[in-house]
């Protein structure tokens, strides 16, 4: 029976120990085998960790374990063969082969641990112990296979150290492999090479520590020949077999891995093909020469081609001209310069169908580069349906705009055609009522007048709602007294309420002054209060004003009238709609009052609601976002005629009744009147004698009022006469009509039927109060001067008042300086900055301040409010009024045209010739300047001052051509 003494030896006599020495080359070979086998094992363990199937994972682990196991075994025997002793040594084949089993088991355990993504400390310790024990068992089994003369025993301490070294170094090798992988200090083969080197050295360290523990007890063989134990060939054979097995294992794994990757690639390719074929968009792949490489099913559907018809052909066959001819050039330019026009982005282009028709597509192109060659993939979406919808929408928009224009034209014509006879009806009715009549005649004519006024109110309502629907209504923004507006409405409707024995009260609980459009607010309240009085038989109406929530103003109109059924409340604000069909017969009206109130309220950014119970009354609630305003004169304007001095009028109208009516009305007030039935007659009469005011109808035969006004302005310029005020006298009341009249050079606008209070007010306005009484004139002048200019600054900067007036006239009359022109510029801020400086230098301080406010607002990227634009209009007009007043005060009222020498055309031709050659002959220009119109002379002088002879030549040539045409 074996005992420890048969395995260990303690303190043997050194004389009885047989010692040997190592062959360095075989030692090095053993280390290479250990490190190489460890590295290969780690590579296969990583492959097992990445495997997607259980079979591939087992294959990688088995082959890796075999490679590492046989590598450890090979390292062991090469290391033993490297140890040469002076005795013959043989090895038992059975034990030698059996010794590989622990090595394989240890390798399996090690690689199974390394195949995990992570490892616990317990598993790491157990793995290290198993690996160390397996390697130790393999080593000592291999040592037991030695057949020799001396007896093999082991030093107990070194034996224990060898096992401990195997366990510790195995654990360290596993920990290093996991630690490097987790911390990602190294990646790929570098990490595995480092870990394999540590593991190989650990295996070698255990082996050579165990060899140091071996004690060979006996005597050296006397007939031993040195070098007889050198088994170099055997060692190399073992190394070759081991390396071959490792490479074979690696090859088998590589083939298996390649097969798996191939299957995966085929699966991915199949999935990608399925995606491409199922894509709704067309997908076309082309080479860098433009050759079509693939053409999916959707592309076949979009272009009408089968894939076989286009594969291998140039993609330009799918493009219309001019892109078809230019495509190859586009592609070559991109490949040469890298300049991208569509690659990486999307754009809408036209494509060519197989049947020859062109259609719109959305095209996006991507590029893939491989080995220096490019492949392009195009994604095509057929947008024909969307393009057709956009085209239809655009056509519908154009048709809607044309319909809106036709509607506006119809309203304008209807207004003109209805108001023209209404002018005669109301005007002559007033004339007859002013003459001696019987009571019956007076009664009948009063009915006619009332009916005509009702018809006119109906027409105004229709036009108001049409303008609101078309967005043609512009709101004014100024301070006003809401209390005064409400009191005026209550006062005006009290008479009607008193006739029906109704109360009409005002409950005012808000601030007095607000900022907004007082006329539109008045129109809203008047419509609501009028309706409330109309539909109330008992009780009365209450107008209540209070400050609402969120800073909004709340206005309530409550009545105790007939009420509105619940099923009709939602329709009460629709045009031409009343509570039921009998309302119109019982109460009259058009049903437009509430519609206009709603439209005006929403235009101001407010809201209107109604609540009602049949038989108990209704309550209309209006919420308006009116900001607080400053105190203003709350006295309402009286609708009375303005007393005018005796004036000379030229009245042009194609309707004889209108001419007769105006002639009678004006002559009764002491004015001189000349009449014309068309624009041509008016122009001839105006050319023959001067007039104080021209009342010009717009729509007349032969020459309309706009053209006649333009010709009058041209005539005044040629004669160097001050402009005569021209007032448009028209039945057209749209905002566009006012703009057209202003563009034609008209100064005022009066609406038919004639209202003498409005007409005389407009006449006094366009005359600049020149013919009002002195007190009115001085009061208006003082107020306007204080508001429009800084007189002390003007005196300081402009000692010459005439020079200041000339500069101010040029500034105020320049078309590019007008507020309307400024408002429609694309970049307003720098223009406002320029005008601000000029206005300030001219002394128009309020105008300069407003321009500065506009400039600051735009620089803050904010929107200029309508109120600020309106303020600019008012201050610009105030500056104009001040200038006109200063100019007219220095000249008599009817200053006759100055006599001037006839223009010397030969001198003018000489001047033009020199100017066109770049000369500036001031002596010739100064000689003919008195014969030129003022505007032309000043513009030419300014051009010469700026050394711009070409501009001066253009102005003078235009004047010469005008003279020649007039003389023909």
UniProtKB/TrEMBL annotation:
The chain crosses the membrane at residues 26-47, 59-83, 95-115, 124-145, 157-180, 192-211, 231-256. Residues 648-767 form the Response regulatory domain. Residues 614-637 are annotated as: Disordered. It is found in: Cell membrane. GO terms for biological process: regulation of DNA-templated transcription. GO terms for cellular component: plasma membrane. Residues 413-628 form the Histidine kinase domain. Keywords: ATP-binding, Cell membrane, Kinase, Membrane, Nucleotide-binding, Phosphoprotein, Transferase, Transmembrane, Transmembrane helix, Two-component regulatory system. InterPro entries: CheY-like_superfamily, HATPase_C_sf, HATPase_dom, His_kinase_dom, HisK_dim/P_dom, HisK_dim/P_sf, HPT_dom_sf, MHYT_dom. Its EC number is 2.7.13.3. The modification 4-aspartylphosphate is found at residue 697. One of its GO terms (molecular function) is ATP binding. NCBIfam families: sensory_box. At low DSF concentrations, interacts with RpfF. This is Sensor protein FixL. It comes from Marinobacter persicus.
């Amino acid at each position: 029976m074996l005992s420890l003494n048969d395995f260990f030896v303690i303190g043997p006599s050194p004389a009885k120990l047989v010692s040997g020495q190592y062959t360095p080359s075989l030692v090095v070979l053993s280390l290479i085998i250990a490190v190489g086998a460890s590295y290969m094992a780690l590579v296969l363990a990583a492959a097992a960790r990445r495997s997607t199937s259980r079979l591939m994972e087992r294959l990688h682990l088995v082959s890796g374990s075999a490679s590492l196991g046989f590598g450890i075994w090979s390292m062991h025997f090469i290391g033993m063969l490297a140890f040469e002793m002076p005795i013959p040594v043989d090895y038992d084949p059975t034990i030698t082969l059996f010794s590989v089993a622990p090595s394989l088991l240890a390798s399996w355990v090690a690689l199974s641990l390394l195949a995990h993504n992570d490892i616990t400390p317990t598993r790491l310790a157990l793995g290290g112990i198993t690996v160390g024990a397996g390697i130790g068992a393999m080593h000592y089994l291999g040592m037991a296979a030695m057949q020799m003369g001396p007896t093999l025993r082991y030093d107990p301490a070194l034996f224990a150290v060898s096992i401990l070294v195997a366990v510790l170094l195995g654990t360290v090798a596993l920990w290093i492999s996991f630690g490097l992988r987790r911390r990602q200090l190294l990646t790929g083969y570098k990490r595995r090479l480092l870990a394999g080197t540590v593991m190989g050295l650990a295996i070698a360290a255990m082996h050579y520590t165990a060899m140091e523990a071996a004690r060979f007890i006996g005597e050296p063989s006397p007939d031993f020949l040195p070098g007889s134990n050198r088994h170099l060939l055997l060692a190399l054979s073992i190394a070759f077999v081991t390396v071959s097995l490792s490479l074979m294992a690696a090859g088998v794994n590589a083939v298996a891995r390649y097969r798996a990757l191939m299957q995966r690639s085929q699966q991915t390719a199949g999935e990608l093909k399925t995606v491409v074929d199922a894509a709704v968009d067309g997908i076309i792949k082309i080479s860098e020469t433009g050759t079509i490489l693939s053409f999916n099913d959707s592309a076949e559907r979009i272009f009408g081609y089968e894939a076989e018809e286009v594969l291998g052909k140039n993609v330009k066959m799918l493009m219309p001209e001019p892109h078809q001819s230019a495509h190859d050039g586009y592609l070559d330019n991109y490949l040469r310069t890298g300049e991208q026009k569509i690659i990486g982005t999307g754009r809408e282009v036209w494509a060519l169908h197989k049947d020859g028709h062109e259609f719109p597509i959305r095209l996006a192109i991507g590029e893939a580069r491989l080995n220096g060659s490019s492949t392009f993939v195009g994604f095509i979406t057929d947008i024909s349906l969307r393009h057709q919808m956009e085209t239809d929408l655009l056509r519908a928009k154009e048709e809607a705009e044309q319909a809106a224009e036709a509607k506006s034209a119809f309203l304008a014509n209807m207004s003109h055609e209805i108001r023209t006879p209404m002018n005669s009806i109301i005007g002559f009715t007033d004339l007859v009522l002013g003459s001696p009549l019987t009571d019956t005649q007076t009664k009948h004519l009063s009915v006619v007048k009332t009916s005509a006024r009702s018809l006119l109110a109906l027409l105004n309502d229709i036009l108001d709602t049409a303008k609101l629907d078309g967005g043609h209504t512009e709101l004014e923004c100024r301070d006003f007294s809401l209390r005064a507006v409400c009191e005026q409405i209550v006062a005006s409707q009290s008479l009607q309420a008193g006739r029906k024995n109704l109360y009409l009260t005002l409950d005012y609980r808000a601030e007095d002054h607000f900022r907004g459009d007082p006329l539109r607010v008045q129109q809203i309240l008047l419509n609501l209060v009028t309706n409330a009085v109309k539909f109330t038989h008992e009780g009365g109406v209450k107008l209540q004003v209070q400050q609402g929530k969120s800073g909004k103003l709340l206005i309530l109109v409550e009545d105790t009238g007939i009420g509105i059924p619940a099923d009709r409340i939602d329709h009460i604000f629709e045009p031409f709609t009343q509570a039921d069909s009998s309302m119109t017969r019982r109460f009259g009206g058009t049903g437009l009052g509430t519609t206009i109130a709603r439209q005006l309220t929403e235009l101001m950014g407010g809201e209107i609601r109604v609540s009602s119970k049949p038989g108990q009354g209704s309550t209309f609630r209006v919420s308006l976002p009116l900001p607080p305003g400053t105190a203003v004169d709350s006295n309402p304007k009286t609708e009375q005629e303005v007393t005018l001095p005796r004036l000379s009028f030229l009245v042009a109208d194609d309707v004889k009744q209108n001419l007769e009516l105006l002639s009678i009305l004006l002559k009764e007030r002491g004015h001189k009147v000349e009449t014309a039935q068309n624009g041509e007659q008016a122009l001839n009469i105006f050319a023959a004698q001067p007039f104080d005011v021209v009342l010009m109808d717009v729509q007349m035969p032969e020459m309309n009022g706009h053209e006649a006004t333009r010709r009058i302005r041209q005539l005044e310029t040629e004669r160097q006469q001050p402009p005569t005020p021209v007032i448009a006298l028209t039945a057209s009341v749209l905002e566009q009509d006012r703009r057209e009249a202003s563009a034609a050079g008209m100064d005022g606008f009066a609406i038919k039927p004639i209202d003498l209070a409005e007409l005389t007010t407009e006449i006094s306005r366009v005359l600049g109060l020149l013919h009002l009484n002195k007190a009115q004139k001085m009061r208006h002048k003082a107020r306007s001067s204080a508001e429009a200019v800084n007189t002390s600054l003007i005196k300081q900067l402009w000692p010459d008042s005439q020079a200041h007036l000339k500069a101010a006239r040029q500034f105020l009359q320049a078309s590019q300086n007008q507020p309307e022109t400024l408002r429609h510029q694309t970049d307003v801020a720098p223009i406002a900055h320029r005008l601000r400086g000029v206005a300030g230098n001219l002394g128009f301080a309020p105008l300069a301040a407003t321009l500065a406010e506009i400039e600051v607002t735009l620089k803050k990227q904010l929107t200029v409010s309508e109120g600020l634009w309106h303020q600019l209009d008012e201050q610009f007009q105030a500056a104009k009024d001040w200038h006109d007043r200063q100019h007219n005060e220095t000249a008599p009222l009817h200053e006759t045209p100055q006599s001037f020498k006839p223009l010397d055309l030969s001198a003018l031709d000489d001047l033009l010739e020199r100017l066109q050659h770049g000369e500036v002959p001031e002596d010739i220009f100064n000689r003919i300047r008195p014969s030129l119109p003022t505007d032309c002379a000043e513009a030419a002088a300014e051009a010469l001052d700026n050394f711009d002879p070409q501009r001066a030549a253009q102005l003078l040539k235009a004047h010469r051509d005008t003279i020649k045409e007039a003389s023909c």
